[in-house]
Design brief:
Low-confidence stretches: none
Order of helices and strands: HHH
Mean pLDDT: 90
Structural class: mainly alpha
Shape: elongated
Radius of gyration: 16 Å
Oligomer: single chain
Largest sheet: none
Distance between the termini: 19 Å
Helix content: over 70%
Number of helices: 3
Length: about 90
């Protein structure tokens, strides 16, 4: 299975940039809680952050699979099943 280190530099940089935006969202949400903002506003921001993390996860898996096929070493059915289960279950 492909490791993140095997992805090209541009892809890794893009993934890190997206993760840093999610990090910024988390700091913003923490600030909202400290300020005592409305629960609905906080929940909406948490939902947006979760959607961004889910999207990042899908992009990472897509890049990993593309790299595997470019290298001529597609994942086994068992490996693919493990990855898909992790995505669907949120890593559990």
């Amino acid at each position: 299975m492909t490791s993140v280190a095997q992805l090209d530099e541009v892809t890794r940089t893009e993934l890190i940039e997206r993760l840093r935006r999610i990090e910024g969202q988390a700091r913003g949400i923490a600030r909202m809680i400290e300020e005592g903002r409305e629960c609905l506003d906080v929940v909406q921001q948490l939902t947006a952050m979760r959607a961004a993390a889910d999207s990042l996860c899908v992009e990472l898996v897509q890049a990993m699979l593309e790299r595997c096929f470019l290298d001529g070493s597609p994942p086994s059915p068992q490996q693919l099943a493990r990855v898909l289960k992790a995505v669907v279950r949120g890593g559990r």
